[in-house]
Design brief:
By secondary structure, the protein is α/β, with parallel strands linked by helices. It folds into two domains: 3-97 and 277-296; 101-270, Rossmann fold, CATH 3.40.50. The chain is built from ten helices and twelve strands. It has helices at 15-20, 25-36, 106-125, 153-163, 181-193, 204-207, 220-227, 247-261, 266-276, 286-296; strands at residues 6-10, 40-44, 56-60, 69-74, 80-84, 133-137, 168-173, 197-201, 213-216, 232-234, 245-246, 279-280. A six-stranded mixed sheet has the order 2-1-3-4-5-12, with helices on both faces. A six-stranded parallel sheet has the order 8-7-6-9-10-11, with helices on both faces. Strand 4 (69-74) and strand 5 (80-84) form a beta hairpin.
Amino acid sequence: MSSEKHARFYLPWPDKQRAEAGDHNFINKVADVLSTAGMQVSFEDPVAADPRLGGYSVFFMRDPFVRNSVTVRKAYYYPFWHIETTNERWHWEVSNSTFDPSKIDEDAARKFFQSWRRRLYEPLLKSVEKGDFVYVPLQGKLLEKRYFQHCSPVEMLEHVLAQEPDREIVATLHPGEIYSDREQQTLSDLVAKHTRLSLQVGGMQELLPKCSYVVAMNSSVAFAGYFLKKPCVLFAGIDFHHIAANVNELGVAGAFKAVRKTKPPYPKYLWWFLQQMSINAGRPEAEDRIRARLAALGWPVT
């Protein structure tokens, strides 16, 4: 068989192990679509990735090659997935698409929303309230402004303090990040300067149900807040920006003004984002959706 008809899946362990055992629901569905189209499929270690090999390639949460290559990544929750030509969520098809709530069936969206918020966050639902503090989940590289960000994360925190002069601000460090001495000292200085600001590690389950709103660069905590009907201000590019108060579009003051009065259509948005714009690997039409997506990207699967 020609190498041009070879599709290589570059998967980290244990995803490679699961796919080889036929136990990775989404990856194996993608492989089945390719095999049905007459392509040879293999599961390989990412260190073996080489664009000179020709054929087609599928990466897992990694930037793909320029030609005949895609990456697959969860849409935050299993079993919802994306097939994209970049690993940067803010350049995904959904990010560049227009969300029109008038085109979403209200009843279908409500049922989807109620079912999934119970499935994902039922323990938190009884404690949801409209608190009077702002929740700021910090990620990494606190002193650096990256190209997709409006400012550095520490500068974002300073903007929150300036825009909310009377409210308590609770900032959290990501449990999986390692912060430098300089980053920690900068945060300590801010806490010492502003008595309204407190800092802790993690705590989403405690803070998200009770906050007034979320401010983040592009943390998935803000997306989780949609299930609890918590609005958010975003300071960076991301795929779930459509119903957020986006600093890049509104400016800092405009975004904070908007978030205080916004009432986003959370059920319709989550249905659109997850059920319509993502591939639900648990649905019977998943392979048809995968085939259509790959065909749209120019793969020979039809």
